[in-house]
Write a structure and sequence with these properties.
single chain; 364 residues; alpha/beta; Aspartate Aminotransferase, domain 2; Aspartate Aminotransferase, domain 1; 2 domains; seven-stranded mixed β-sheet; three-stranded antiparallel β-sheet; 40% helix; globular; binds pyridoxal-5'-phosphate
């Protein structure tokens, strides 16, 4: 039984009858840039997230970069974030000329350790960028209170958590700006690249639209250095179909995680849902001292698995000159022991049993 990390083929088979005619209609309509489906998707995504504004762009990376630019991040500024994430969370800070300051993570939630953030705040700190890693919301209420106390901005990296809830609000809707990605592996995904920024702030929304469209308020008049960052019409069509299925797909991910939790209890450290919000299991990530052995047995059994992330950001070569002496023991330990198992709304119960069997075999 060959089991992929994420079964996009099964998902395509399920949604094909909805997606294909909608895509063909958009092809024939020939409004490929700034078309009606992009505007409709932005409105539907804003309604889903419960915010006033949703602005689509070309990728999750662009969403982070444009959000940081919109709040005025520039050379000399510091931005506090997590070292245990995909590189774009921090590379976009550097693209603005600013410095990412990495704070260690909580060993159970894998998210920023809230107790260590305040000590990292300096007079140069302008923003905190938490990541809701693997789909689990960071505790946003205390984080927002901390930001307000110090007069700094909160930008949520919700690339892995679209559809998660915290305190009655959707992931991304709590901070000044929430950013998400529609990369094909994400919980809400396109058939290519795409991203989205959400906010309740009218002024930030206007600034974001200017930055995403060549820094232009009036066509052919350029006020600031901007970007060409757009979601294309075809991706918008696909995302409009898939947004309708997001809640049921996330519910299935949660059910799969519950079965894994039951079957793997006592064998490995199962992921800890901290109960402060709805975890949507972008990844199902276990910890084990025998991680490499589990990985080998799964791979030999044609079961996909992956280490997210093998190298924490403070240890990446690109940060060697600026962060070479940083030590973050919890992150470094988790990076050595973590393993993500297949999770997909399409995963069947018999496949879950097969995966669990292979993990058991690796440990006996
Ligand atoms: C995927 C991801 C991004 C980047 O999104 P792209 O659409 O691939 O540019 C940023 N942050 C996190 C946490 C991600 O998982």
């Amino acid at each position: 039984m060959n089991i992929p990390m994420l079964d996009l083929k099964a998902e395509y088979a399920l949604l094909r009858e909805e997606i294909e005619p909608a895509v063909v209609a958009a092809l024939a309509a020939c409004q490929y840039i700034n078309g009606p489906n992009v505007r409709a998707f932005e409105a539907e995504a804003a309604a889903y997230a419960g915010v006033k504004h949703a602005i689509a762009c070309a990728s999750g990376t662009d969403a982070l970069l444009i959000a940081l630019r919109a709040i005025g991040i520039k050379a000399g500024d510091e931005v506090i974030t997590t070292p245990f994430t995909f590189v774009a969370t921090a590379s976009t800070v550097v693209m603005c000329g600013a410095k990412p300051v990495f704070v260690d993570i909580d060993p159970r939630s894998f998210n920023l350790d809230l107790d260590q953030i305040e000590a990292a705040i300096t007079p140069r700190t302008r923003a905190i960028v938490p990541v809701h890693l693997f789909g689990q919301p960071v505790q946003l209420a205390p984080l927002k209170a901390l930001c307000e106390k110090h007069g700094i901005r909160l930008i949520e990296d919700a690339a892995q958590s679209f559809g998660a809830d915290y305190g009655g609000r959707k992931s991304g809707a709590y901070g000044d700006i929430g950013c998400t990605s529609f990369y094909p592996s994400k919980n809400l995904s396109a058939f290519g690249d795409g991203g989205l920024m959400i906010t309740d702030d009218d002024q930030l929304a206007a600034e974001i639209r200017v930055l995403a469209s060549h820094g232009s308020r009036v066509r052919y008049h350029h006020h600031v250095l901007g970007y060409n960052s757009r979601l294309d019409e075809i991706q918008a069509v696909i995302l409009r179909v898939k947004l309708k299925h997001l809640d049921s797909f996330n519910a299935r991910r949660i059910a799969i995680a519950d079965s894994y939790n039951k079957e793997l209890a006592g064998l490995v450290e199962t992921p800890f849902a901290d109960g402060h919000g709805r975890h949507v299991y972008h990844q199902y990530t276990i910890l084990s001292d025998r991680r490499d052995m589990i990985q080998k047995v799964l791979t030999d059994s044609a079961i996909a698995c992956a280490v997210y992330y093998p190298v924490p950001l403070h240890q990446q070569e690109m940060f060697a000159a600026t962060h070479g002496d940083v030590r973050l023991p919890v992150t470094e330990d988790v990076a050595r022991r973590c393993l993500s198992l297949p999770i997909s709304p399409m995963l069947k119960n018999e496949q879950i049993r097969h995966i669990v069997g292979a993990v058991r075999q690796a440990l006996t």
